[in-house]
Amino acid sequence: MNVVLVHLGNMKNIVYLLLLVGIFSCSSGNVFKGEFRTIERVEPIEVECERLKCEADGAVTGFVADSLYIFYTPMHPDYHLAIGRCEDMTSIARIAHVGRGPNEFTMISPSERIIRDDNGVYIWLHDLDKEQMVKVNLSQSCKQGYIATDSTISLSELSRSGEEMFKGSMVEFSPLNDSLAVVQTYQQEGWQNRFLYDYQNRKVAYDYTTLFEKIERVDLNGMGIYVKPSGDKVLMNPAVFNQLNICDIDGANPFSISYRKTPLTVAELSVLSGEELMQKMASESSICGVAMTDKAIVVNYLDRRAGKSELHIFDWEGELKHILQPDCVMRNISIDDEARIYGFVNDELVARINASEYLN
Question: Residue 275 in 3-state DSSP?
Answer without folding.
Answer: helix
